[in-house]
Known about the structure:
The protein has helices at residues 16-40, 47-64, 73-87, 97-105, 111-136, 145-159, 161-188, 198-202, 211-245, 260-278. With 279 residues, it is an all-alpha fold. The chain folds into two domains: 11-159, no CATH class; 192-279, no CATH class. Helix 1 (16-40) packs parallel to helix 3 (73-87) and helix 2 (47-64) crosses helix 7. 16% of the residues are buried.
Amino acid sequence: MHSTSSIAPVERELSLRAVITGIVLGILLTPSNVYAGLKIGWSFNMSIIALLIGYGLWQGLARRSAEHLPWTLHESNINQTVASAAASIISGGLVAPIPAYTLLTGNQLAALPMIAWVFSVSFLGIWIAWYLRPSLLNDKALKFPEGMATLETLLHIYNHGREAATRLKVLLGAALLSGLVKWVDTFIWAFPRWSPNAQLERLTFTADPSLLLLGFGGIIGIRVGLTLLLGALLAWGGLGPWLLADGLVSLPADSSGPQFAALVEWLLWPGVSLMVCST
Length: 279
């Protein structure tokens, strides 16, 4: 017989506060994900951001409350899972087919058709993922880079709490800085965009002082960044001038600034072919 004092306490995992925290953070982070997707064509699962914010919030409250109810590692995992699932709703078409429909037709979907579309696509994705789960998640050879990065961050903040607090301060500081810079650029004084000459500017080669792009580069790393640069040079520095020289694409004589829309209709197809074949 074992005494009751030798039984280890059960650590909470699926708690109400973990789910609610994930829902609230997902609601707050989803508009940021939509904006990033429309701006740079790339979205994020927001797992690490939700992880750090949830940890900082609840651990801070636990230190100040009389009950000292800690925010457990498993609750952090539930929180980031719910938040990333909410932020990933943009894969239902909010940054691809729906904006494309608006650009092509000039019409905007009403609220009810858009809700029905996103719900249907999301439900289909969950249904398919349910059947693919055994062959994907149970395969230990698949590393899932975003999942591995989230796991490493999760283990690190619980093993090195003080460093986690420092990272949270850096995250909040970067958020305030980028928000201030964007506000100044939009409402007070537009930062200058630089290009070597008018021809390269028309081919979209312009230095944009955007902290969103700097942060994006920091996340994807040097190798993926150089790959994107190589693709841009091939598409806009090679195929783009060739299309203009052969008269396949004509630009208005008085046009200025990046002529993205006119050229992307042609560059889209080799780009999609390369992406599909590389997978």
